[in-house]
Amino acid sequence: MTFDTTHALKGNPKCIFFTDFDGTITLRDSNDYLTDNLGFGYEKRRQGNIDILNGNLSFRDGFRDMMNSVKTPFPECIKELNANIKLDPHFREFYMWTRKVGVPVIVLSSGMQPIIRSLLVHLIGPEGEEIEIGSNDVMDRPGRSRNEEGGWEIKFHDDSHFGHDKSLTIRPYAEAIAKMPENDRPTLLYAGDGVSDLSAAKETDLLFAKKGQDLVTYCEREGVPFTIFEDFSTILAKLKDIYSGKTSVRKVAAEGAKEFREEGSEAETTK
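Above: the chain's sequence. Below: its structure in token form.
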């Protein structure tokens, strides 16, 4: 599946902001919520995440196992999530600022599009309809309906072992931008928190990794430059400085690495 880059590049934006959805825009991962509460539970789900992080299980297989454990009819799953999943309290302010200045926001998710769209509209309002989404989808099981018990399954975005390889979605933007005059090239940014973001971690100019989550562990281990965020107020402040030219992505990454090392050193001394 090829992602159309023309919409985001129209108007020569200064930046394009890609973001994970679950646990990044939301305070809790909606797929984890479904698995923990309606599927095989936290312990089995967390062990699967650890196996993925350590390379013992593909994300695709682990995520399929999670979703297959949820038998609740799909409309009821959406209703349950709308009642229990909350938005990062600063994301709406972030998104309204990006709309005002013309910075495209593109959600790249390993979740399912109907759930993501429903939550965005429910939590943000009608403006949530405008956010571009690249994600997996849902489909009826053969001879069944998603409206019945055990009647649905995940439909993966591509054939990769990720199920949705976010790097393959970001790459066409980078290739199109490389052909543009240097002064017209937008900065590519990405925010994420977990194992589904591993493929995207090296694809943009600056990665925002959520503090204390699996993506930070990966970036530290693999030497991927990143800066830590706690919520979207951190991201918005740094994005405004990058957008205005007050700072650069290279400087933000360097400061982020220094901050992370200093926090690690402090943690060691307080053990």
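The first strand starts at residue 15 and ends at 19.
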